[in-house]
Amino acid sequence: MDKKYYVYILLTENNTLYCGYTDDVEKRFAAHCSGHGAKYTRANKPLKIVYTKEFSTKSAAQKEEYRIKRLSRDDKLKLINIQL
Question: Are 8 and 62 in contact (CB under 8 A)?
Answer without folding.
Answer: no
